[in-house]
């Protein structure tokens, strides 16, 4: 959909704004809002009550409210580029600003204007992005009449809702593709590829049958070595040394980001020899938010060691690292890891990992299964990437549309005709 330009423009006098509609004003953002500080909420926090907003939206409730009305919320520290539009009674955390909308301003139009603020340009701290009232208040924007603001906001409400619906649809598609990919992998590594193969009980309550010729094994019986990383090495992390692999370096596709890993200075001792990664090792996260995540070190590009939150499994020659990795990463392996952490227990022990149930097909069959899994995963990954590209394009369209409308580069007044 294309929209016309306004009949007449003038020079805004601001380089990044360029020309603006001749009948619009060029003003500072403070002409739209009066910016107020948020406040600490911990002394009034409760399970129910008034909404407490952080940069990501509502995250708790309070017994009191800071303001009752329409407002645009702006980040002060941390996440500073996610303005929110709210109405009614609310509280905002002390890392956010809230605003009183001025009488000649539309709250929703003000919100859309806020989305176009170049927050990274004004940020006062690169380590912890921060915004000042002064920077926000003095930011130069365009201002049409209140009637026109309302029309533009109504137009943007409708158009962004359509785009958001398409984005949500693409996200659902991505979720379904990921579920289907996991289902295909699970079936391959627990059922095999021969639909006519005789089956037997797996001995695992939540799984069902497996091919009769497969061996029921444990991780410890298909590995030559298992260990966890050493404690205390984090004190030696720096800009030089060997790669130091941590849980955050494990991605969600059985891989490790070696090139983004931190480095550590280690000695030439038994502890270093024990925890050094080799080609073909399988790594399992045993503590923290990513507990149960799995990666396979197909090729280790440089000398690398694991930290204390990871378990290293060195598979025996009878099992392919990628077969074991896919099995542990599948919903079968993840269910076992989840059950192992049931109750108050936090994380996995080495014995939990060593006792993990596995299955052992003949080596030639493992090769066929992994070839199939790789081929199917490539197909699903391509579809997922395509869906993500669609989301990126839609979000770019959304951003561009908002910017064009609130700066007068398009005339949407007739969109309601």
Write the layout of secondary structure elements.
Blueprint: E1 9-11, E2 19-21, E3 25-28, E4 33-37, E5 45-46, E6 50-54, E7 57-62, E8 67-68, E9 71-75, E10 84-86, E11 89-92, E12 96-101, H1 107-114, H2 119-122, H3 133-138, E13 140-143, H4 146-191, E14 199-201, E15 209-211, E16 215-218, E17 223-228, E18 237-238, E19 242-245, E20 262-264, H5 270-275, E21 282-285, E22 294-296, E23 304-306, E24 310-315, H6 321-329, H7 331-340, H8 350-354, E25 357-360, H9 363-406
Parallel strand pairs: 6-11, 19-23
Antiparallel strand pairs: 1-2, 3-13, 4-12, 5-7, 6-7, 8-11, 9-10, 9-12, 14-15, 16-25, 17-24, 18-20, 19-20, 21-22, 21-24
Q: Mind explaining what this structure looks like?
A:
- This protein has 417 residues and is α+β, with helices and mostly antiparallel strands.
- Helix content is 33%, strand content 23%.
- The chain is built from 9 helices and 25 strands.
- The protein has helices at residues 107-114, 119-122, 133-138, 146-191, 270-275, 321-329, 331-340, 350-354, 363-406; strands spanning 9-11, 19-21, 25-28, 33-37, 45-46, 50-54, 57-62, 67-68, 71-75, 84-86, 89-92, 96-101, 140-143, 199-201, 209-211, 215-218, 223-228, 237-238, 242-245, 262-264, 282-285, 294-296, 304-306, 310-315, 357-360.
- It has a 5-stranded mixed beta sheet, with no helix packed on it. A 4-stranded antiparallel beta sheet has the order 4-12-9-10, covered by helices on one side. A 4-stranded antiparallel beta sheet has the order 17-24-21-22.
- It is elongated and about 80 Å long.
